[in-house]
Amino acid sequence: MEYIIHFFILTPFVAFILSLFISEKKEKLIAGLAFYAAFINAIVAIIFLIFWIWQGAKPFNMQDLILYKTDGFNFFIDFYFDQVSATYLITGNFIFFLVIAYSRNYMHKESGFKRFFNTTLFFYTGYLITVLAGNFETLFIGWEILGLSSFLLIAFYRMRYLPVKNALKVFTIYRIGDVGILLAMWMSHHLWHENITFIKLHNYDLVHEQLMHHSGIGIFISCMILLAALAKSAQLPFSAWLPRAMEGPTPSSAVFYGSLSVHIGAFLLLRTHPFWEHQTTVRWMIAFIGLSTAIVTSMIARVQSTVKGQIAYSSASQIGIIFIEIAAGLEAIALLHFVGNAFLRTYQLLISPSVVTYLVREQFYNYQFKPKVEKSNFATRLKTAFYLLSLKEWNLDSIVFRIILKPLKSIKGFLAFLNIKILIFFLLPLYLIGNWMANSVTFLPLQNYLAIAAGLMALLMVSKAYNERKSTELAWLLTVFAHFFIDLAVTFNVHHLDLKEAFIYLSGILVSGIFGFWVIYRLRVIEKKRISLNQFHGLVHSHKLLAFLFLLSCLGVAGFPITTAFFGEDLILTHIQENQILLATIVSLTFVVNGISVIRIYARLFLGNLKRNYQTSTSLTY
Q1: Quick check: 135 and 196 in contact, CB under 8 A?
Q2: pTM above the 0.85 mark?
Q3: Quick one: average pLDDT of 551-571?
Q4: Cβ atoms of residues 587 and 486 within 8 Å
Q5: Where are the domains of the chain?
Q6: 137-190 pLDDT per residue, tens
Q7: Nearest residue to 184 via CA among 154, 147, 139
Q8: Of 314, 306, 160, 140, nearest in space to 232 by CA
């Protein structure tokens, strides 16, 4: 019975692979493939759920595939099924099926018809991997797929500036959540001395014994899990990204940000609930943030001028209440609330185009001005203050990005010295010498400080890549070289890093880096000029194949699960000790900023140029 999990994941994934090879002109075939994949998955899920309940609804765990194993590290794919997974599975299947059925006609004659269904199937694969995951590593695979597919669907109208800009904003917030997951995985390895599975977290004696002796570590892991959940579920202070994500087509808004993807943060808290449920501080923290989000986003939703904005903030408000229910230990109510909120928001978003039409018509023909005079008193002034704050969305967007991006941009001038010559003739020899010293010298003074210095150099490289506007080649090389200095930092830290482990980590980075540099070179040859990063060029319209190949290269350099670099990053992190939080944070931040930088390079090269599209084609779709 357990192996039915494979069927749930493989059905949309096989449909996704097949859809890549179907011609864009065959709309019925593309939509039919997605429709029947969703239909079959939904029917099989219902049958399986009935059988599972009939058998007693007992949770089960299935260790599926070992990708890499040593004496101190075991990276394996693991699946777990219980009532939380069952609820998210059956709800996801129904909503995905409804949205696919709706999209067949809604997206008809859309220039990106095939791309929409490709990306939606890819998203659904990631969603199923996430909700059926049995450990953090497997969950992180689905987590990353959700982040990428979100970016692609928000930027669906890829020749417009605003969708691409908002897609980059949302992807940045998602990468902040990745910091939480990475650090939670890192510290979990040291707490349990194994790749802990979620089913083991239900062993109260095991969890209680560990937290009794390592309470600080337990709180740290819980806080990192909470950070990831807040970013993914648009809770304070990250709520402002949710309405920005509505730039994509209405069906993708329904399945992503109204119903499924936005509830993944709540799912993460439910899945790890046995770990933090006895940490009173963490529970109060979750409840307080949920309550604050519910209040603030409710006020913002009431003054939104767009239907999608109202629905987005209303959904965030309800998820805040779900957070409170989870913190209170009301798991069944939280799951029921998730189902109700998911179906309601899906329905509201799918009918929103019709509602807008009705409201405009009603306002045009029947609008009556009703003057209202209120006395000026404290209550009125307070109401006005909240109204104005809500109109400005409590400045959440600017606050978050000022905290996150301003530090990166503020060091732009300091990093001006970094160029290709410095990279090749100074930093490359420095890496080789440092690597030789770390592996050959028996006693290395200030070893820990050298590790932090190498990590900081990697972080500065990706920061420079993020700020680079002139040279695409420099920005790309910096993202690749940063991984080598991460390798150097860990090598200094452990005084000797196994060459096999270094090869696993760096081989995927090197192949992707070389391939991406070749694409940049080809663009330079074809366009007969250097392509800078000071604007969006929109080259995807004339170079679709190169755009796809460069996206794959970006994913490889960012550690996406398509190369060995994905579990190589996890492997590297395990060599950092639990008392080296500074080094672990630097390495994690480097991974995250690196991912933001490479996606930004991709967006600047291939997306967002409306003028170029008008000059080359008249098929722009609104």
Answers
A1: yes
A2: yes
A3: 88
A4: yes
A5: 4-360, 415-616
A6: 999 999 999 989 989 999 898 888 888 988 998 898 998 889 899 999 999 988
A7: 139
A8: 140
